[in-house]
Specification:
The protein is mainly α and 642 residues long. Helix content is 58%, strand content 2%. It has a two-stranded antiparallel sheet. Strands 3-4 form a two-stranded antiparallel sheet. The longest helix has 21 residues.
Length: 642
């Protein structure tokens, strides 16, 4: 007996939206799928977005059904769906274009249609008894409709249907009713269903919280909190684990409302425990918008006192939350007891607000220490408040800067902000101060006043303190005549910065950067390599090969290996093979990868002046080449995260 022929494998079928299933005549139960709340909302939205524009549409593509290809428009032509037939020239009345009587799928399409006239016509079928019982969830959705006529008719129809439906069927509508409560007109639907079954079912809330759609989880949080099915700890847990900021915001607002209710009734945690839980939530690194939502909800709940606001203003990691807490503290409470804490905040705006209120709190003597704040805004507020009480900030700055033991960098900057040319001699004296940051601020002050001597920056380019060297570079970055002498500075960081500034700001010729490829400082070599860049092919090949020789410093070897790639394959292969056993692991594998790539594309034996050395190196590493290839593949897979 011969075995039967094997049937061809089943081809994958195109997934169809719930609206498309109705369009092809499927029943409401088939279109709704599992019948969860989100399935009914998805069905309604699927039809609505497909019918919002009348008339034919362009096809979205071609689909395969069995062994044949069809135009998508041919299969899903929404012009065949029920539509509103306007009155013709013969005076025929306007009516719905559907079957007589309409089928179940046509009624469902009309209930979800974008045109409110079709939704109204479908609801009027209830008076004739033609509305199928499976459409009751769609009628419930229409109870929250955006059109008033549709909404009122749907509520009348649904209210009449509730009297004839069993309690178990109404209970199944509870998740959908709770989900509709998020809509503007959805409160009636929730009340109608929940009042019939005598309360919010726990299983309905659990179904919504387990959904993958954010609006379902938001509705679950809202319903569970209002019905007492969630406590504050559970709401906080949802806020911490949910990835959607909207759901987390609903959860944290619910948690704070529940906390306030527990504190009012005295049945729950103490105020200290509630505040500790809130601060623990705010201390986590999360979306800034969620932190602002939690803070606003805590303020609405009256949970935060002035000391809590001061704590948030001083130490919270999110700037907007800090500023919001500060504004609330200043407008609704007396900040005087918290000025010391606020004046030590890391946020300059918070410190400035505290300094601004020292005078009104009778603490004008404390203004002097804020003249040397690290931020210009705080220093400006301190100077303004001192002048308001008749004190002279300049005298304080002069006294600080004249004392070598008491002077600070901020004091030098504060004195320079006066922009008084009479202070130039004092700043010149401070350029010889023992502390580097003071010398740097003095140089910056002279630059601010336009009093830098012609050779001043160059004289400080070899200063042992990096802040002074950075101040020198900032002072001369616009002058190519002053930058060029810095190419011979003692410190490699200065040479590298000067070379980079000449290239980016003043169009340095790449040929002038070639000698710096042999600089002993790695940073200078890297900058010179970027300057030479695409012009590497114009460099002599022997020079580049010598730069990549094994005896060179690591930065020079790396530069030579990168630049030789602009030359022919022979030079690139020779440099790579020379560095195949380099002690630097990064450079070694870069060289091996280069060698593997060049050998793969070579079609004939390498000749020329370097042919003998290349053949000798290839023969020496021939046994290792397969291992190099496999290791390079492994490293590439690891880099791609595979």
């Amino acid at each position: 007996m011969t075995p039967p022929e094997l049937l061809p494998p089943l081809l994958p079928t195109r997934h169809r939206s719930p609206g498309e299933r109705l369009l092809h005549g499927k029943g409401i139960a088939s279109a709704a799928g599992a019948g969860r709340a989100e399935d009914w909302v998805r069905l309604d939205l699927s039809v609505d977005v497909s019918t919002w524009r009348p008339g034919p549409r362009r096809s979205s593509g071609r689909v395969r059904v069995g062994f044949h290809w069809f135009d998508d428009h041919e299969l899903d032509d929404w012009t065949t769906a029920p539509h509103w037939h306007e009155a013709g020239p013969d005076g025929r009345p306007a009516r719905v274009a559907w079957s007589r009587p309409p089928t179940e799928s046509e009624i469902a399409l009309a209930l979800c249609h974008d045109d409110p006239r079709l939704r109204t016509a479908a609801l009027r079928l209830a008076g004739d008894g033609a509305l199928p019982g499976a459409a009751l969830p769609l009628v419930l959705i229409r109870c929250a409709d955006r059109d008033r006529t549709v909404r009122e008719l749907a509520r009348a129809v649904f209210g009449g249907a509730l009297a004839e439906v069993e309690d178990e069927a109404v209970r199944a509508l509870a998740p959908l009713a709770l989900l509709l409560d998020l809509r503007r007109y959805g409160g009636w639907a929730r009340e109608a269903v929940i009042s019939r079954i005598g309360g919010t079912p726990a299983e309905a809330v659990a179904e919504l919280l387990a959904s993958r759609r954010w609006e379902c989880r938001s509705a679950g949080v809202r319903a569970g909190a209002s019905a007492g099915l969630l406590d504050a700890a559970e709401a906080y847990a949802i806020a911490e684990r949910d990835a959607d900021v909207s759901v987390a915001g609903h959860a944290v607002r619910a948690a704070l409302r529940l906390t306030r209710q527990a504190l009012e009734t005295g049945d729950g945690p103490t105020r200290e425990d509630a505040l500790a839980r809130f601060h623990a939530f705010m201390g986590g690194r999360r979306d800034p918008a969620l932190g602002r939502t939690a803070l606003a909800a805590a303020l609405d709940a009256g949970l935060l006192g002035p000391e809590d606001l001061a704590r948030l203003a001083v130490s919270h990691h999110e700037r907007v939350a800090r500023r919001h807490a500060l504004d609330t503290l200043l407008t609704e409470h007396d900040p005087s007891p918290y000025l010391d804490a606020l004046s030590t905040a890391r946020d300059a705006v918070v410190r400035a607000a505290a300094v601004e209120r020292l005078r009104s709190a009778g603490r004008s003597d404390d203004l002097v220490r804020h003249l040397t704040d690290s931020h210009a805004r705080v220093r400006a507020v301190a100077r303004r408040e001192l002048r308001a009480v008749g004190a002279d900030p300049s005298a304080v700055y002069h006294a600080l800067c004249a004392d070598p033991a008491a002077v600070t960098p901020a004091a030098v900057t504060g004195l320079a902000e006066r922009r008084d040319p009479g202070d130039v001699p004092l700043f010149r004296d401070l350029t010889r101060h023992a502390r580097g940051p003071v010398r740097a601020r003095a140089l910056a002050a002279l630059r601010m006043l336009g009093a830098l001597p012609g050779d001043g920056p160059v004289a400080f380019a070899d200063d042992p303190d990096p802040t002074v060297r950075n101040a020198v570079l900032r002072a001369v970055r616009r002058s190519p005549e002053t930058l060029r002498p810095l190419l011979t500075a003692e410190h490699g960081t200065v040479r590298a910065a000067a070379l980079g500034l000449l290239r980016s700001r003043h169009g340095l010729d790449w040929r002038k950067a070639v000698p710096f490829l042999e600089d002993p400082a790695p940073r200078v070599v890297r900058v010179a390599r970027s300057v030479v860049g695409w012009h590497a092919s114009e460099l002599p090949l022997p020079f580049v090969l010598d730069l990549a020789a094994p005896g060179r410093p690591p930065a020079q070897r790396a530069a030579g290996l990168a630049l030789v790639d602009r030359h022919d394959d022979a030079g690139s292969l020779l440099a790579a093979l020379r560095l195949a056993d380099d002690p630097d692991v990064v450079l070694r594998w870069a060289a091996r990868g280069r060698a593997v790539r060049v050998l793969r594309r070579l079609e004939e034996e390498v000749g020329g002046p370097y042919g003998d050395e290349i053949r000798r190196l290839v023969e020496r590493h021939s046994a290792e080449l397969p291992g190099w290839q496999e290791e390079i593949r492994r490293r590439n897979r690891a880099a791609r995260g595979r």
